[in-house]
Amino acid sequence: MWLLNRLHNEGYSALLFEHDALGSGQTVASQGMIHGGIKYTLNGALSGASEAIASMPAHWRNCLRGEGDVDLRGGSILSDHFYLWSASSAAAKLTTFLASKATRGRADKVSKKDLPTVLQNPQFKGSVYKLVDMVLDVPGILQLLANQASEHIYKINWRHARFDSQPQTGATTLHIDNGGETLNIKSKALIFTAGQGNEKLLRKVGASAPAMQRRPLQQVMVKHRHPHAFYGHCLGADTTPRLTISSHPCADGEQVWYLGGSIAERSISLPSGTLIDQAKTELKTLLPWIDLSAAQWATLAVDRAEPKQRNFARPDQAYADWAEGCNNVIAAWPTKLTLAPNLSSEVLKLLTDRGIAPDLKNKPEQKVLPHLPLPKPTIAPPPWELAFGR
Ligand SMILES: Cc1cc2nc3c(=O)[nH]c(=O)nc-3n(C[C@H](O)[C@H](O)[C@H](O)COP(=O)(O)OP(=O)(O)OC[C@H]3O[C@@H](n4cnc5c(N)ncnc54)[C@H](O)[C@@H]3O)c2cc1C
User: What is the pTM of this model?
Assistant: First the structure.
């Protein structure tokens, strides 16, 4: 939806077809962190690619102020910072890392009097840094992006739709059968930004590359009445955060602490109950003064979708490229919510390099694309609303 908005703003005519609810899959299941990649540089090395991600929080902030390439005015920020904290044993390592050049002033040490409320307890002995990263109200941002492009978003039912490759040009066209009438959608570019769905879509058009990889996670959700929201990565002995906590408001006024990080990465094959027990122990170890005895617990198994990397490495840039074996198909994965603006810029570069230029007279308000007689998708509910009821 970021890309759709961006294309319209650049003067392109573009439509989005969604087969379920907007943002289902990864986006509504994400922790909503718009980060500069610092958590991926805990081993101290800042790669060229992580420089690309470093500019993303400022990019999103410009858009939230209405000064960027997509208008996010009215979007809510749940937190304008994220903490990096360590239990006492890892404190020395954290301090060394954060004092190094790698962080380039993107993290500030938090004094005892400014500690987040959750960590204000005499039992807390670790150190805390504040990152410029922010956390967004993701469903709200999705709604905003959808509203701005609502006339160009449709629901598609693949039982009644198919791709067809034209022999003369090799270009792929989309045909949608709609109650006896066939809608033929011809476009200069078909852009697949369907997360995991890209794998199947690429197969449907006969593309031989790119391939996709899945990075499975099992997140933990804790719904409770503890009054304080908290957003932080706890650093352990590894170079990936031991535990990442983000807080999300629920419709009934309670909140969910959403737990990711190593706990979610190494527990994918555990039964939900076993993982919940581990999460309870972890929170009791790290925050023993927080009483979660009346909390409700659930887990969510979800895969990240990424372009296939050598050695299953983590991509740290958005991916977009023309698919091989077909003429007018781009496959794209942001790989992180943070990188949605980066993905859009990469797609625009691909279009421009192929001479696919916007018709600049064709402003969105002129509605040059005809209205299609197709239903509209809704925004996907966040996983905690599904797990704990509405
Ligand atoms: C647990 C978790 C936490 C995360 N936390 C963060 C975070 O804090 N910060 C961050 O930057 N990133 C985070 N990420 C990564 C981030 O969520 C994803 O990279 C990003 O949301 C991917 O967006 P997407 O639109 O490409 O895919 P998705 O969000 O998966 O959306 C794909 C969309 O395509 C639709 N679709 C699928 N197949 C088809 C089809 N055949 N036809 C039509 N439509 C189709 C789906 O219904 C869906 O609406 C997290 C990921 C996970 C899993």
Answer: 0.94
